[in-house]
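In response to a reviewer's request, we include the raw inputs and outputs for one of the modeled complexes. The two entities were modeled together in a single run.
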Amino acid sequence: MNATALSELPEPPVLEDDPYAIETLANPYAFQARLRDAGPIVWLAKHGIYASGRHDAVKAIASDWKSFVSSGGIGMQDIRKPGKFRIPSVITEVDPPLHTQVRVVLQRILSPIKVRQWRETFEREAAIIAERIIAQGTFDGVTDVAEAFIFKVFPDAMGLEIPRDKALIIAEMRFNQTGPANALYEAAMERAAPHLEWFNKSCEREMALSGGVAEEVFLAEDAGLLQPGYASNVVRTLVGGGTDTTIAGIGFALKFLSENPDQWDIVRQDPTRVRGAFEEALRMEAPSQIVYRTTSEETEFQGYRLAGDVKVAMFNGAANRDPRQWSDPDRYDVTRNTTGVHLALGHSIHVCLGQMLARLEAETILAAIVKRATRLRQTSEPQYRLMNQVRALRSLPLIAEAG
Amino acid sequence: MRAAVAHGVDGIIADCGGAMGCATCHVFVEREFLPLLAPPSEMEDQMLDFTAAPRAEGSRLACQVMITEALDGLRVRVAERQL
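The model returned the following structure tokens for the whole complex.
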């Protein structure tokens, strides 16, 4: 499009909402609808950023990595700007061709063949946890299941020690850092401070145990496949991306299954449906709710003029409930064909690298429970763990009926 | 891949839903049609090393073959194993 035509285009509609207000993070659905209905892309005046919550628009932004770059960081702050600097991830916060170089190395290390080899181990660990909660009767779907399982199998697969208490606190720092410097962020930073020294060392070479993914990443660096210093950076991204989001996805799957007995029955009758149960949970409560790009230059997007060098928020959670894409989007339906269509795992070149690992984890733990429980029921209200970027549960009190 | 799954074509598993993440939609494109397709990207090329059935001439991930008018009549053989 030539410059004159571009300048004649309207600017995106303005929205005054603050998506990061505590009450909005706690209950985002009304905001999500306003965001979608305002247009394919809007100007969020409160934060001086563009934002999109429609399925086709978010997908288009994620696909056009030339116009919407990742090198400005996947959070709200442009990490290239003075005073905003933090060390970028060399996999999620870079653009091609550098991104491709790193991605192919990691894709090889986390190949589908490798992931399938973990199945037996995951099934064994899942059985232990499922037996335990059935014996207990009442349990917490987040702490006793999702966290207990992921903090067992994921560190083992990575070949790293990832203590649950520290990791959860550091994650809250990281998943609040990608939003504005609000009260949530301040509190998370304060809680994380005593653990920063551990965090800085946690993904270094000497921490990598023999036979794990982390060690393979360091070996790739030794072989010259990754630039010096990249391995530790990448391992840190894998750990950050592989814990809380998967825990959130499993937690929400258990929440929806306990709230929808008809869907539970479908899965009980055909346990292969646990995959659908997980994908549908990801669709309805995208663990990673908001991911950013930056406009590389002034550009046209779906009939609007966008300024260059401005942050663009992709509201994956909003896109995943877009009625323009799904019929009855607020209904949990394990038979819905959403894999590869919902945007919880991103789309295009930055699509979640660990998605097959996450699916295997979710599938094995959910299958172990479905096999042993005849029904799950909530004994009190689930509690949310509010973070600027990530939507997750803090607790999900459940009772399992068996027999 | 989507067309195959929608029509229940046996042997196209597509665990990842078309994200080049699982290598379970492996097909062999017959030689005469190869010139009609854009070559695999670097990512697809790499994922083709992880297919269950050995990679051969014409190996592609079906999720990366977008059906267009030009591909009318395209013939592919589904890999005998995907897992």
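As requested, we also summarize the result in words. The CA atoms of residues 53 and 80 of chain B lie 7 Å apart. Chain B is about 15% helix and 10% strand.
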